[in-house]
Amino acid sequence: MPDWGIWIIVALAFAAIEMATVGFFSLLFALGALVASGVALFTDSWPLQACVFLAASVVFMWFLRPVLLKLYGTEHKATAVDRIAGQMGVVIEDIDNTHGTGQIKAEGEVWTARSDDGEPISKGARVQILRIQGVKAVVRKL
């Protein structure tokens, strides 16, 4: 098999890995292997082909990966957890940390709640959501 064919197979293997991981990491090695396959058309020197493969992969990693991540990478989408911290809510079930009870309603959503200072908070009280701990809102009475 010619050297360029081996580099094409290497490129396809890296492309398959990229399809499984989608991190724009293996793709850049696949591109490096394609560059090496082009060099293999002109020289039989494996060390030169390997150096071109590594150099091209590093160049692609350095310059192309940030662009790909910016264009197609996953962006952090705000979730209810991100939005709810700092918001105000109303206690709809008495909050009692010792009994593990309590719920609040904030932005139309019901959350299990715990008091920040451990003091019970009665139904109907207004609270501020300090943070989300697991699936529970940690609140402070206003």
How are the SSEs ordered, and which strands pair?
Blueprint (H helix, E strand, L loop, with lengths): L2 H19 L4 H15 L5 H27 L7 H5 L3 E9 L4 E6 L2 E7 L10 E8 L2 E6 L1
How is this structure best described in words?
With 142 residues, this protein is of the alpha+beta class. The protein is 46% helix and 25% strand. The chain is built from four helices and five strands, in the order ααααβββββ. A five-stranded mixed barrel has the order 1-2-3-5-4. Strand 2 (101-106) and strand 3 (109-115) form a beta hairpin. Helix 1 runs antiparallel to helix 2 (26-40) and helix 2 (26-40) runs antiparallel to helix 3. The longest helix has 27 residues, at 46-72.
Helix content: 40-55%
Strand order in the largest sheet: 1-2-3-5-4
- Helix and strand content put the structural class at alpha+beta
- Mean pLDDT over all positions: 90
Describe the oligomeric state of these chains in a short phrase.
Answer: single chain
Instruction: Give the topology string: H per helix, E per strand.
Output: HHHHEEEEE
Q: Ends: how far apart? A: 76 Å
- Counting DSSP H or I runs of 4 or more residues, the number of helices is 4
Radius of gyration: 28 Å
Low-pLDDT segments, ≥5 res: none
* Number of beta strands: 5
**Morphology:** rod-shaped
How much of the residues is beta strand, in percent?
Answer: 25-35%
Biggest β-sheet description: 5 strands, mixed, barrel
